[in-house]
Amino acid sequence: MAGLIDDAEDEALAAAARAQYLSSGIASLEPDRRVRSALGRGELLLAERPRAAIDPLANGGESTMSGRLAVTSERLILLRRSSVTLAGLEDLDDISLIAHRLQVLLTTGAAFAIRAIRPRLLQVELAEARAAWFDRQAGRPVAGLPDAPGVVPRR
């Protein structure tokens, strides 16, 4: 029963996030010192999970990594002793929810799974962060975020 309640809550949070993003865009979060040290110049924190496990989906001999997951305006980062960039937002090709894990396929053909709380919400957050990244690269202002450096917003 707890799993069903968690699933229903996750779906409700994902639906609320979709509605918010449609009406007012994605907003950045205030990063703590640890996250701030991993961010690049002008990079913003958009979502995070306190604990996540990353499972490689290829037989390359890689092992599961765990740490704190951060979705930024530029990339997906796993914060560990040394931070690991899992992917740039431009490299995210497909994000599917399968058995409570997000299966992430990259444009390079690589793939990994993310195990974290609220996977449906995370899927929506990643999709919105990716869309915002492409909008900013095209010079379009993104509701909720400051304009990209060097971009003159259309008013």
Describe this structure in words.
The protein is globular, with a radius of gyration of 16 Å. The protein has a seven-stranded antiparallel beta sheet. The longest helix has 23 residues, at 2-24. The chain is an alpha+beta fold and 155 residues long. It has helices at 2-24, 33-38, 119-137, and strands at residues 45-56, 65-72, 75-79, 84-88, 92-98, 101-106, 111-116. The chain has a single domain (2-137), classed as PH-domain like.
Can you summarize this structure?
By secondary structure, the protein is an alpha+beta fold. The chain has 3 helices and 7 strands.
Helix count from the secondary structure assignment: 3
CATH topology: PH-domain like
What is the count of distinct domains?
Answer: 1
What is the CATH level 1 assignment? Mainly Beta
Major sheet strand order:
4-3-2-1-7-6-5
Number of E-type strands: 7
Overall residue-averaged pLDDT value: 88
Q: Which CATH architecture is right?
A: Roll
List the helices and strands and how they pair.
Layout: H1 2-24, H2 33-38, E1 45-56, E2 65-72, E3 75-79, E4 84-88, E5 92-98, E6 101-106, E7 111-116, H3 119-137
Antiparallel strand pairs: 1-2, 1-7, 2-3, 3-4, 5-6, 6-7
Helix pairs in contact: 1-3
